[in-house]
Amino acid sequence: MDISIIGGADGPTSVFLAGKIGDVIILPAYMILILFYGIYFVKMLSQKRQGIQTNQLGKGKNKSVRSIETKLRLMTWLIGVIQVLSVVLDWNRAAGAVRVTGVIIGGLGDLVFLIAVLTMKNSWRAGIPEKDRTQLISNGIYRYSRNPAFLGFDLMYIGILLICLNGLLFCATVCGVVLLHLQILQEEKYLTEVFGEEYIRYQRCVRRYFGRKQRIRQNL
Asked: How buried is residue 218: exposed, middle or buried, by Cβ count under 10 Å (0-12/13-18/19+)?
């Protein structure tokens, strides 16, 4: 429980208020985690019923791609475990205002991830598909981010880190964000090979994480 002194005040009242903030923050932390991972697994089960393998991380492919995807897959599970332990045991050294900021960022991550998954429909995959050929999605949220699902992951990770700030979760979050970025770089190479000039034009118009460089033309 967060028992830091609020506003530099002293005495039992400030400690009591700090503890109350910690208690209130824990519920939205649970909700952020349940909603985010719930979206992931519901989508995976939905695609499985249609004969689509959603999670293709670390399966087949060349050595360098497989190596990064395998590390990302393991780190994703590890971060999830550390996040749950951090929330359940309330491992935290952050002040109340930082934790509230974390709730906002984490909730935004859930929203971005949900919109990205819904927009991708059945073209969504975790990892680079070795045999599947999906569509290049550039509408909806993909008009403002080339990788909104990864952005959603980053925001959720950072949000939970701010809610339960501790050394173990910090190290895991940094590793997770770095591996997600490396995965993005690999997927960009793959998409360039598959879609060629169409994807290159899309890259020129939309930024990797968020923002537009220029107006999207030719129905991208």
From this structure: exposed
Q: Please tell me the pTM assigned to this model.
A: 0.85
CA distances from 193 to 100, 155, 214 (A): 43, 29, 23
Domain ranges of the chain: 23-205
* Per-residue pLDDT at 7 exceeds 90: no
**pLDDT tens digits for range 109-126:** 999 999 999 998 888 888
Question: Domain 23-205 classified CATH 1.20.120.1630?
Answer: yes
Q: Could you give the CA distance from residue 55 to residue 124 in angstroms, rounded to a whole number? A: 10
Would you call 49 helix, strand, or coil by DSSP? helix
In this structure, what are the phi and psi dihedrals at residue 55, rounded to the nearest 5 degrees? -85, 105
Other CB atoms within a 10 A radius of the CB of residue 214 amount to 8
pLDDT for residue 19 = 53
Neighbours of 189 (CB within 10 A): 11
DSSP symbols for 128-167? --SS-------SGGGGT-S-HHHHHHHHHHHHHHHHT--H
Tokens of 136: 């290049």
**Position of tokens 């903030």?**
21
